[in-house]
Structure formats: C-alpha cells, structure tokens
Amino acid sequence: MTHKEVRKKFISFYKGKRHVEIPSASLVPENDPTTLFTSSGMQPLVPYLLGEKHPSGTRIVNSQKCFRAQDIDEVGDNRHTTFFEMLGNWSLGDYFKENQLPWFFEFLTDELHLDPKRLYISVFEGNEFVPKDNESIKIWKELFSQVGIEAKEGERIFSYGVDKNWWSRSGTPDKMPPGEPGGPDSEVFYDFGIERKFHENSPWKNKPCHPNCECGRFLEIGNSVFMEYQKQQNGSFKELPQKNVDFGGGLERLVAATNDNPDMFQIDLFSTAIKTLEAITKTPSNYKIHPRPYRIISDHLRAAIFLVDSGVEPSNKLHGYVLRRLIRRAMIQARELGMMGDEWLSNAIPEFISQYSQIYPSVTKNTPEINQVITAEVDKFRKTIDRGLREFEKLKDNQLTGSTAFNLYQSYGFPLEIIKELYLQKGVTLNELEFSEAQKTHANLSRKVTSRLFKGGLVDQSEAVVKLHTATHLLQQALREVLGSHVRQKGSNITAERLRFDFTHPEKISNETIEKIEHLVNKKIDKNLTVSVEIVPLNKAIEEGALTVPGTTYPEQVKVYSIGNFSKEVCGGPHVDFTATIGSFKIVKEEGISQGVRRIYAKVSSDHVNTRKNHAQ
Ligand code: SER
C-alpha cells in the first residue's frame, strides 16, 4: 500500500468509531521546554491526558509529525528514520483496553489485510507498583482465537519489564518527574519471516528469537499505552482520575508491513526520491549495491524540509544545531555519491514536497524558504569542507589524533561525527581512544545544553509555568496596544524561571517603551482580572477577535482563553484563574533574533505580590 492509503485508512477507521480528527501539532513544541522536538503523538496532548477538557471531545485521531534527534546516528540501516509520522488514536477517559485492542487488531487485519499469523504481541510483566497486564493477555488470546490461532504466552504473547512495556515521555518509571503521566503498554510486532534471523551475517543467528530481540525479523508497528498512572513526589504511582489510551503507530512502519518488506526506504515515500538520486549519481553504485548514503540523504533531507517548515534555521545551538547536523551529514553522503554541487537538493527536495503537498500544504507554501535555507547551509558547509580538507592534506602518516579532530570541530565547526565520517571515508585512520575522549567531553558539553531543558520536571503544568503562561498572554496584548496590531506571535518558550516570547516588530524597542509595556502588564495583573475559557468553532473564535499563532493549523473546535476584556487567544491552556496570582512582571531582556522578529525574556516574582498586597492593606 502507499503511505497515503494507510494514513487515510487509519483516520477513516477511527472516525468510523466516533473519533474526531485533529491536525498535527508543530514539530517544534510551543510552551514545552522539556523537549526540543515533538517526538511522539501524545506530547502535545499531555494536558488532556491529565484531565484538561479537549475541545474536540474524548475520542481523538490524528497523524502527528515527529522528529527523534537521538536516532540521527542510527540512520543508514533499513529501519531508522529521524522524521516520521505517528498515527494516533486517543481515549481521554473514554474507552479502555476492551475497545482499543480489538479495534487495532481489526484495523491491521481487515483494513491493512495483514495476516494475523504474522502478528506478535508484548505486554507489561508488572512491577512493585503496577500488576502484570493479564487483562490485555486475555483480550489478545480471545482475538487470536477468533481467527483460529491459539496465542500462547511465550510463543505469540510475550511479557517484558519497564524497559520495553512501560511508556512515558521521560522513559522508565524511575526517570519520570513527579506529576508525569505514564502507564503499561501493549505492542504489536510484524514478523517479516524467520529467514531474516538466519541471514549469514546476523549476530542473532544462534540466539533465541523473540519480538524484542532486534534480529531484524520483527518490527514494532503499533503501541497501545494505557496511560492511567501519575508519578508522585515520593516516587510511587497513583491512578489518574481518568484512564486514557494513547496509541501510536509509525506510518512508515505500517506501510512497510503491508509491503511485507522490512526496508522502510522501499516504501513509496522514499523510493521516488531515491530513484531520482540514483539517476544523478556520479558513481556506478545504486541503492541496491550501496543503500546507506541514499538512506541518509533521503531521511535527513526530508527531516530538514520539515524543520525549516517549522521555522528552524541552522545555527550552533539547540534546534538549529540539529538541523545543521542533518544538512551537513546529508551533504557528506551526497559527496560520497559523487554529487559535489546542489544537484541532489534541486532533484530530491521537490520529490518530498510533492508527497506532502496535500496533507501539509505549508511545505508547498514555504518551498522558496526551504530551498533557500538548505541550499545556503550546503554552500556554507562546502567552504568549511574545503578548508577542512586542506587540514587533512597536512596530516602526518594519514593519522588523525583525537585532539586534531577536536580542533577541527572547534575551529571549523565540523561536528565530531562528521569528521569521523568524512575522514574515514578518505581512508584516514583515527586514534579511536583519543577521539572517544574528545567525544565524551563534547557529549558532556551538549548534555549541559540539554539538561537545562528538563529542569523543573513537568514544567508545562507546574504553578510557576502556568503563571508565566498567563503572563505571556498579557504581554502579547500589551505589545499590541503599545507597539501596534502588527505584533504577532512567532514563538513562545516557558521554563519555571522565565518566559521567552518572539514576535513581529521591525525595530529595537526603547527602554521607555519597555517600561510602558511592563507597566501595562502589571496594571492588568493588579486588577485581578478573571481568566475564563470557552470551547468554540475556530471560525467563531477568529470572528470574535481571538488571536491565533500564524502558521499553526488548528482543529475545528478550539479553546479560547480570555483575560477580562483585555486579552483573547486561541490556546490549549492551562492558565491561572485570576491575574493577581501571577505576581510582579519584569522584562529582563529585549533583542532582535532575525529580520523583523524581536525576542523578550521576562520573569514574574511572587515577592512583589505580597508587597503590593501589603500596600493595599
Ligand atoms: N506514546 C506512545 C509512543 O510514542 C504511543 O503513542 O510509542
């Protein structure tokens, strides 16, 4: 089947079960500083899994754009991709296991026509807090028996511990911060055939085979998470007030299963782009002989298209650094295929854009920007490579020491993994030990970048974050009143310590104006305005003047948060109930981040609330 057929079938199937389709959220999450990218379908839905009312009801279906930066180095085999679409259905306190498992089984066997004999199951084996998932085992046994298969434990149904059959955004229960939702899950695997295991090079040849053994025989094609627990301060788990289902299935994997071919890069989404690359390669190799470079180019290019579409630009920090790595790694592989100019970009980018033009029209709209950003980064890196290669000529005895590698990283902006790839490709040997020391230092540095992102636990629900979120709405309205209605949100990021708000405005803002804005926000806080929420159709919200974030696709029904008569925005929440709880608002920094876009950092301080209260008394 094609990816379009599978996506359409999934959405229609669940719509038939009274689910409401919602659009994919952005790849770069707004107001969720716990993560750089949306990497699963549930991430944008966390507030609703915790009990917030979703404007579309309690049954939801969608296809969510996801990006997993941690998989970059794995790309090149037949199954790893960084960008993918996750098909998802959710029960927000509605149905549970008794519907979820039969429906997914029905979808796989009746809609995708997968042979039930090729389906294998895993469930949670239980731990000190949560019992073994015997309920799911019972349901699965019944479902298989209806199609004449005796599903025995240890043969078709396997139980695993928290590493495999527990799901939360942060991973295993011990890694979950207090407040985080999670639960046991049940995965379905597709069996591509025993011969994969016995492939002559397989390290699994003489080892016992089971769904999670990673021998290449089984591929996980869907995961039903029974999101029913919340981590407590003392490390234990409490049942959530509502029992939820969070189902996610990789679109590309499901398509590969329908083709009975474990090579993800042979599905229609990739095969046309790969054929285009094969036609222009300057080497005698093709995908069949040498698949790795084709896989890396097509995965990374597709991901880069979506990151640029989400507003990311290459840089040395955070999102921008990931985009830079993707483009640079793809370019090195293009050189491996003898493509030294931009011909691989001008051929492959349009292929991907045409695949997605209907479902994600913004990629068509943003095509000029996508081409421009990626090509500019490639051109820039070409100069760096040329300089780096001159350094390479100077190497003695074709030996690259770890410190030289690190120096190339620092002086020429070569990411270490790219140095490794580029130089090894040239037959230069690398002192692996020294290199890994340098790499460790680098990894520690980047961890310090990212560890800040996780500070504060479930930040999007904490009191501090909720206050800053409401303050962000007040700030946006104050900016519009003081600077003009051309001000629109370009981005927002909140941690427990501060808010960061990006918006359109052509010039630097003077200190006096900053004070005016601050004063207006504080005035509204002091008035103790009521924050109210209503669920309305999107067009009604817009008609009533509610602000939206330009470039965001909204569902048909949306939540509108109003702060007195001062501010009205389409927003998922949550917010404080009254503005006086926010505290005193202070802008700490204003700067330009790109042409016509300014950034404000601001804080709130509760001390001042007390001071003001005391004054009032
Ligand atoms: N959250 C689960 C996953 O990402 C299911 O959607 O696998």
Helix-strand layout with pairing:
Elements (H helix, E strand, L loop, with lengths): L2 H13 L4 E2 L24 H4 L9 E9 L15 E10 L4 H15 L7 E6 L9 H13 L10 E4 L1 H4 E2 L13 E11 L26 E14 L5 E14 H8 L9 H13 L10 H19 L8 H19 L6 H14 L5 H4 L1 H27 L5 E2 L1 H11 L3 H10 L3 E2 L1 H23 L8 H21 L5 E6 L4 E6 L6 H16 L4 E7 H6 L13 E7 L3 E4 L13 E11 L2 E9 H11 L1
Parallel strand pairs: 1-2, 4-5, 10-11
Antiparallel strand pairs: 2-3, 3-9, 4-7, 6-7, 7-8, 8-9, 12-13, 13-18, 14-15, 15-16, 17-18
Helix pairs in contact: 3-4, 7-8, 7-10, 8-9, 8-10, 8-12, 9-12, 9-14, 10-12, 13-15, 16-17
In words, what does this structure look like?
The chain is an alpha+beta fold and 617 residues long. The protein is built from 19 helices and 18 strands. The chain folds into three domains: 3-258, Bira Bifunctional Protein, Domain 2 (BirA Bifunctional Protein, domain 2, 2-Layer Sandwich), CATH 3.30.930.10; 288-453, no CATH class; 462-616, Threonyl-trna Synthetase, Chain A, domain 2 (Threonyl-tRNA Synthetase, Chain A, domain 2). Helix 3 (97-111) runs parallel beside helix 4 and helix 9 crosses helix 12. The protein is globular, with a radius of gyration of 26 Å. The model is unreliable at 450-459 and 609-617 (pLDDT under 50). Bound molecules: serine (SER). The site of serine (SER) has 10 residues, from strand 8 and strand 9. Residues 40-42, 88, 167, 223, 225, 246-248 line the site of serine.
